[in-house]
Amino acid sequence: MLKGKTALITGSTSGIGLGIARAMAGQGCRIMLNGLGDPERIKVLRSEIESEYGTETRFHGADMTCPDQIAALVESAAAAFGSVDILVNCAGVQHTAPVEKFPPERWAAIIAINLSSSFYTIHHAIPYMQRNGWGRIINIASVHGLVASANKAAYVSAKHGLVGLTKVVALETAGSGITSNAICPGWTRTELIEPQIIARAETLGVDIEAGGRDLLAEKQPSRQFVSIEQLGQLALFLCSPAADQITGAAMPIDGGWTAQ
Ligand code: NAD
């Protein structure tokens, strides 16, 4: 489905971003990976994707707190593959604390990585999409782009901002062949939420699995984690012709979390 297309996926060295990279590679898309991590491990990831799906990958280690590095990331994808057709903004971090104790430097980092980086990638990638009259912008927001939870001031603010950015870009690109949408996952078992599962298990004096079940019981009516594969398939659907008229949407995939 995506043969000949190019996808740049920020935060794709683990978790949801890596899952979306695999889903898109599986459809023949060439992939620009980005994120933090051990260079040797990233080399292995690239060769796994290339041999499993027979497609090309590149890696750029741009730090999502640095606008100059983000510009270089987009230019490097365009130079390697000729364009940027699909942009998935997935890089993200978390920190939990009550607002009066929230460290200002964590606030600044979360706003930079979870929100501002998407402005910069979109800003630099859109001209390539406009040139081809086709593009897909997929912002990995969160249920926290739609509703709040205590102790997540920066994360909730950034994700609400990302949903707003998604809508503005949708209006500015409407009818041009470019769509802009946000995916809003509920709890998905990745490194990002592991500290919250561990903290819950410690508070309750239970094992990690029981800690995870307790987190789910509090917010996610299905009491099941969203899977990385399900998120990959939703991203693929947004790239399909069936989704040509879906733009400006913030799509929950959350086991009923935001229905409450
Ligand atoms: P993860 O920790 O596995 O992935 C985060 C990715 O962002 C990694 O590749 C990491 O290297 C990258 N990253 C972090 N800081 C960076 C920086 N400064 N520069 C470049 N890359 C950086 O966690 P995940 O759960 O896969 O998170 C991916 C996205 O999904 C995040 O935006 C997160 O907010 C969102 N999300 C996650 C969940 C969940 O339950 N896991 C739910 C809703 C939304």
Please explain how this structure is put together:
This protein has 260 residues and is α/β, with parallel strands linked by helices. It folds into two domains: 6-186 and 227-253, NAD(P)-binding Rossmann-like Domain (Rossmann fold, 3-Layer(aba) Sandwich); 187-225, no CATH class. 48% of the residues lie in helices and 13% in strands. The protein has eight helices and seven strands; from the N terminus they run βαβαβαβαβαβαααβ. The chain has helices at 15-25, 39-53, 67-81, 104-132, 153-173, 194-204, 208-219, 228-239; strands at 6-9, 30-34, 57-60, 86-89, 135-140, 178-185, 250-253. It has a seven-stranded parallel beta sheet with strand order 3-2-1-4-5-6-7, with helices on both faces. Helix 1 (15-25) packs across helix 8 (228-239) and helix 6 (194-204) crosses helix 7 (208-219). The protein is globular and about 55 Å long. The chain binds nicotinamide-adenine-dinucleotide.
